[in-house]
Design brief:
two-stranded antiparallel sheet, 15% strand, alpha+beta, 8 helices, 4-stranded antiparallel sheet, NADH Oxidase
């Protein structure tokens, strides 16, 4: 097996140096912050500066990806006319979902959220971010393979949502399936497929969220010591 020459193309990694108490406190603080995150469906139309959205997307763009291909495109929309088109198309698909596509069990599971096919937040929220996964890249007309695209884009989504919360904003993971209309409205190339839509903004003054409980550490983790 050949040995990677780390004298070429590598730089020293500069790590943070915390004592163990600091490591514990930092991990606890970050958890407590993200534990306040909620999916919100009622938005304020209060403006959010473009620079904030740029920083949020930059953060998501630091996500790890297969072979560092970074197989994603973030489309950030504040245009009222585009948001209106997206809402119209999304509600058309959602109507079909709520009136035949979804199983009775699925609809029953959604009752606690009080949702239906109406999606006014798509126009009220000052920004919509649509994340596209790049099934392949194109370089001078030649297709270039991307690796672990679903996994890479999923990780970037998690980091995007965390960055939104960190900035004091709220969002909602919205998947109006099928989502091909987003590629058409936003005129994306053939190699980009819609993955997730997120309205982004401040919560409405009277916003409410359902009473939910997150699973305990014992329910989501198994430790082998």
């Amino acid at each position: 097996m050949s040995k990677v020459n780390k004298d070429s193309g590598f730089v020293p990694y500069v790590a943070k140096h915390y004592d163990l108490d600091k490591v514990v406190s930092e991990s606890k603080s970050f958890y407590e912050n993200l534990n306040q995150r909620r999916s919100v469906r009622e938005f304020s139309d209060k403006a959010v500066p473009k620079s904030v959205i740029e920083n949020i997307i930059r953060t998501a763009g630091t996500a790890p990806s297969g072979a560092h291909k970074q197989p994603w495109t973030f489309c950030a929309i504040s245009s009222a006319s585009l948001k209106s088109k997206i809402r119209e198309a999304a509600e058309k698909e959602e109507y079909e979902n709520y009136h035949g596509r979804m199983s009775d069990a699925w609809l029953d599971d959604l009752k606690k959220f009080g949702t239906d096919w109406h999606k006014p937040f798509l126009e009220v929220a000052p920004w919509i971010i649509v994340l596209f996964r790049k099934t392949y890249d194109v370089d001078e007309g030649e297709k270039k393979k991307n690796y672990y695209v679903q996994e890479s884009v999923g990780i970037a989504c998690g980091m995007l949502i965390s960055a939104i919360h960190q900035a004091g904003l709220v969002t909602l993971t919205h998947t109006p399936s099928p989502m091909n209309f987003l590629a058409k409205i936003l005129e994306r190339p053939e190699n980009e497929k819609p993955y997730l839509l997120l309205p982004v903004g401040f919560p409405a003054d009277d916003a409410k969220v359902p009473i939910l409980n997150r699973k305990s550490i014992e329910e989501i983790a198994v430790f082998f010591e």
